[in-house]
Amino acid sequence: MKFVLRRLAFYLLTAWAAITINFLIPRLMPGDPVQSLINRFQGQLSSRAIDSLRTLFGLDEERSLWQQYLDYLGNIFTGDLGTSFTYFPTGVSEILAQSLPWTLALMGITTLLAFVLGTAIGIHAGWRRGSWLDGMLPLTTFFSSIPYFWLGLIAIAVFAVQWPVFPASGGFDNSLVPAFSAEFIGSALHHGILPGITIIVSAVAGWILGMRNMMVTVSSEDYVLVGQAKGLTERRVMYAYAARNAILPNISNFALSLGFIVGGTLLVEMVFSYPGIGYVLFQAVAANDYPLMQGVFLIITLAVLVANLLADVAYLLLDPRTRREA
């Protein structure tokens, strides 16, 4: 319990530091977001309207940086993430609520499938070295070295243009209205298959290689030899003795992957015009949209910290050596 409380205090301190950096970085970037918004209206705004916009976005010169920081912290605790420059006058919270489910659905399912599939293949490839499965590693490594967006372009050219089996862009059919209906869910799944397969093909090789190497390392440990000497079945020794210890590094990497799920895969979402949070972040950076950038970074930061905390708890359950009380 003490270990969990210490880690929780550490993550709270880290969250405060990340929030502070999140506040400062956009304001250190060159450019004036209010001026960009004015340019969108082609000079149709009066000087009084311009001053009101600066006050609305917390960028008026009368307020110091410290006062803006305190207001920013207060707004976070009240759930007010500000108003977006890019989607003015829509609030940041509303934009994130619309785009986040798309990214969570796509990245969450593909990350989990890649982890489970890669870990299972890596266990068997590392345990049975020299088998045909182990010989497939160079092929998987080749696919992992290809960037997401390049695989996406190839997938679009083959399966959306040459053989129009899947749609090339979008998250659902434009003729449908988002709703919890069988037709809309089917359309969303159909549009998500191509980017999902692209992500899995690129990510699964890393899980296979990492798990395979750890299985090779632990297979010669004394506790594995003891399990074999006790006459246990090969399946039990492989999973309960070797894989349980070999999977620990993959657990940490998987926790980090879960944290970055909310950030989406920016290039994949851009290639497929997928309505996720990664594409929203790209638009926010291009428009110097401080509130939207801060909202996206805040969600990503908190997700990574929570995922790391869950990884620490998982370590306590899987590895007795991390239990300080013992």
TrEMBL record:
PANTHER family hit by this protein: OLIGOPEPTIDE TRANSPORT SYSTEM PERMEASE PROTEIN
SUPFAM superfamilies in the cross-refs: MetI-like
PROSITE patterns with a match to the protein in the record: ABC_TM1
GO BP term (any one): transmembrane transport
Family: Belongs to the binding-protein-dependent transport system permease family.
A Pfam family the protein falls into: BPD_transp_1
Subcellular location: Cell membrane; Membrane
Membrane-spanning segments: 7-25, 102-127, 148-168, 188-209, 254-275, 295-318
Highest rank taxon of the organism: Bacteria
Domain ABC transmembrane type-1: 100-311
Name assigned to this protein: ABC transporter permease subunit
Record keyword Transport present: yes
GO annotations of cellular component type: plasma membrane
Signal peptide (residue range): none
Main subcellular location of this protein, as a coarse class: membrane
Annotated keywords: Membrane, Transmembrane, Transmembrane helix, Transport
